[in-house]
Amino acid sequence: MANFAGDVGLLDTPTSVELEAGDFNACLNARGTYTTDKFVLRLNPQVHRLVDAAVAAAKSQNGLIPAREITADMVFAYSTYLHETVHWWQHVGSTSGLITSFQIPAIVHENSQRLANLVEGGVNHKPIKSWAESKMRSGDDSELLSQANTIVNNAIDAMYYRYLSFKPKNIFAASEDRYFESMGHSYWISYIHAVALMQSTFDSENKILPGVKHWEDSFK
Fold this sequence. Notes:
The protein is 57% helix and 4% strand. By secondary structure, it is mainly α. It folds into 2 domains: 93 residues, no CATH class; 125 residues, no CATH class. The relative contact order is 0.09. The N terminus is likely disordered.
C-alpha cells in the first residue's frame, strides 16, 4: 500500500499529498470531511487510493482479504470512508438534511434576479449587508435597497435554519441578533425556497410538490 508523501501513514497527520489526475476538489487538510451545507463528501486522495485498493483486493479474493494482508493504513482509510458516509446517510435520510443541502442553490435561485438588479443599479461589490446598512442609516428608501434587504434576510434566515435545526439551544444566541425574526420564520423561508427550487427543476406546474403560498398563516 502507498503512503502519504514522505512515508507518512494514516496514523499520522497528513501534511503533504502528491495529487494525481482525478483528485479534483480533494480534501487535503484532513483524512475526510462531510460539508453539510454543500451536501458533499470528500476524502483525502490517499484515503481514496487505499479504499480502492482494499476493494480491488477483496474482489480478487472472493470478497475477503486475509487478515495478514490488512494494514493499519487500510483500516483507518476504510473507517474514514465509513465515518463520512454515515454523515451523508444522516442527511440524505432526513428532512432537515435535505433542506440544508438545498439551501445554497435555493438562495441563488431565489435571489438571482435581485442580484442582477443590484449590479445593473451600480451595486457591484460585497458585502451587500454592509452596503444596505449604510444606505438605511442615510435614510435611503429606494427599490434597490429593498431588494438588497431581501437578499440579506434570505441568507440570514437560511443560516439560522441550519443553526437551529442542528442545535436548538442556539435559539438563545439567535434571539440577541436584530436580524433574527423567529425560529418559525427561518424554517418557513428555508422550506419554501427549497420547494421552489425543486418546482423550477421538475414540477413547474405544481402537480407533485405541495403549494407553499398557503403555508404562511400556519407558520405564523
